[in-house]
User: What shape does this take?
Amino acid sequence: MHYPKNIMNIYGLIGFPLTHSFSKRYFTDKFEREGIKESIYNLNEMETLDGLLDFIKNTPELRGLNVTIPHKKNVVQYLDDLDEASAERIGAVNTIKIYADGSTKGFNTDYYGFKQSLEEWFDKRGEDCEGIKALVLGDGGAAKAVKVALEDLHIPFHIVSRSKSEHTLQYEELTEEIIKNHRLIVNTTPLGTYPNTDSFPDLPYQWITTGHYLYDLVYNPAETQFLKKGMAMGAQGLNGLKMLEMQAEKSWNIWVHEDSLWSV
Assistant: This one.
């Protein structure tokens, strides 16, 4: 890919598919708003990571990458180093810093974005994390960050997945008692994401109450079917936009300053 001669710093997103992008819009607006010169943020669709190392090697202006579905776990094996406090502990990467010598280091800013936004949400609602139990829907790369954040908040949780294992519940195993006793439900799956806005996790929504909190990592659309169905039962709902904004700013601080202020 050819870039204008004045571009000295390239950032971007890798994943597949990239049908829409919060990140490109966010960073393009940030560069313009803050007068950040000679910088650009691009989308790089990669169905596999086979070409990642060549891409980094052949793009000397590349300073940093964000990583999205489906590569957050698999990208770890391609990196030279992992941030011990985030990526190494979580086992998934969504932010890569690329140094002047071409070496790479992986971080996880999903942890930061989810934990901070959840704490703010609970605080605004006058809710205390103490006594809250959670259900985490999905067990992919995003779920890994959510699980570590919940552990640090001392919120016990169960993973809910379509696949059966000794560490997960299946959707059909969710009883009224389980739903009642887990007032925080976090959707880490892509179900409901534009353009497939009619899809949603297969929960027994009839047992959700006014005491429940539904957090959807999906942000487009702003109100997914998951949130609509829960809020129709009186639950509080929050989408993933605030989390994305917080993790994006943390990514930028890592790329520019290698911000290591992790509350992990």
